[in-house]
């Protein structure tokens, strides 16, 4: 990450101090890379509450520091990144995880998403792209390096063709409102929360609230399960 990128990205972070700074934790086993990412985030106005160099350390420190966003490498000693993600998101569903990895292998991307990661960015990304990804991840958007979003959506569709566990369709199950169904349909089509908000002319926060309400009503746990539910019912084609 060049000093020029850092300076420009930092200028883009002006105004964050006017709001509550996002709490971010960086996990990577390479000290120079970890320190550079943490420095870039801090210079842009983020509150870097912790860093860690291995999986077990990451779990302990994240539980103590309670970050809003975890910037996580997958290739970690002691405990793999996907295990770290699954354990932390399992105990704190509000935690957003942005994987920052050198690997663009499809299997790694899909495993990370299935473990609870909100987004996946390659380490070839610029500083400005990283900062934007952290902000969007904190807001609940699914952020991916270009080309990987289509891969994940394709996997959602593949999963939808497989037998699914029992879903709450039995009589008496909570019903979605028209707006919740509309939001769910757009999520299934692969739109980000920002795009959905613009399409429906509602706020980003309202979109998030509809998604959270839908997850609760359907007794689902994350966006992966939500999209699978929608595609199984053909909402992505509606």
TrEMBL record:
Coiled coil: none
Domain Response regulatory: 23-138
Record SMART domains: HTH_LUXR (SM00421), REC (SM00448)
Domain HTH luxR-type intervals: 169-234
Domain of life: Bacteria
Residues recorded with modification 4-aspartylphosphate: 73
InterPro entries: CheY-like_superfamily, NreC/VraR/RcsB-like_REC, Sig_transdc_resp-reg_C-effctor, Sig_transdc_resp-reg_receiver, Tscrpt_reg_LuxR_C, WalR-like
UniProtKB keywords: DNA-binding, Phosphoprotein
Any one Pfam family match given in the protein's UniProt record, by short name: GerE
Keyword Phosphoprotein in record: yes
Official protein name in the record: Transcriptional regulatory protein DegU
Organism of provenance: Streptomyces platensis
Classification of source organism: Bacteria, Bacillati, Actinomycetota, Actinomycetes, Kitasatosporales
Encoding gene (name): degU_18
């Amino acid at each position: 990450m060049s000093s020029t990128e850092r300076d420009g990205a930092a200028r883009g972070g002006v105004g964050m101090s006017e709001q509550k700074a996002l709490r971010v934790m960086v996990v990577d086993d390479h000290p120079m890379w970890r320190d550079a990412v943490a420095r870039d985030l801090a210079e842009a106005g983020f509150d870097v509450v912790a860093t860690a160099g291995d999986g077990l350390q990451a779990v302990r420190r994240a539980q103590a520091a309670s970050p809003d966003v975890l910037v996580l490498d997958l290739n970690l000693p002691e405990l793999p990144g996907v295990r770290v993600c699954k354990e932390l998101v399992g105990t704190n569903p509000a935690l957003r995880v942005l994987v920052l990895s050198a690997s663009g292998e499809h299997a790694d991307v899909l495993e990370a998403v299935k473990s609870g990661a909100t987004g996946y960015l390659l380490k070839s990304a610029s500083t400005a792209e990283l900062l934007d990804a952290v902000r969007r991840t904190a807001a609940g958007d699914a952020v991916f390096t270009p080309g990987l979003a289509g891969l994940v959506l394709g996997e959602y569709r593949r999963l939808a063709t497989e037998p699914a566990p029992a879903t709450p369709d039995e009589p008496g199950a909570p019903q979605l409102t028209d707006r919740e169904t509309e939001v769910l349909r757009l999520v299934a089509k692969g739109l980000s929360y920002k795009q959905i908000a613009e399409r429906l002319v509602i706020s980003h926060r309202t979109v998030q609230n509809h998604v959270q309400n839908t997850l609760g009503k359907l007794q689902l746990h994350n966006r992966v399960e939500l999209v699978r539910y929608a595609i199984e019912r053909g909402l992505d084609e509606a």
